[in-house]
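Objective 1b. Sequence-to-structure analysis of Formate dehydrogenase.
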Amino acid sequence: MKKQASDMGRRQMLKALALGSVAGAVASVSAPVLAASPKATDEPSGNNYRETEHIRNYYASLSK
């Protein structure tokens, strides 16, 4: 019985090592892709942003 318990620990360790190597491979492949993505700008763009009167008032209050 004791041998089974030690086999389970060894199996879990091997699974952890396999998953760790897969995670490392995914991270190394995805890092250059993420670095090449365009950076977000400070200015909102697109159809979702509308500068309304209360937004202009808020911007004006920041410069005081």
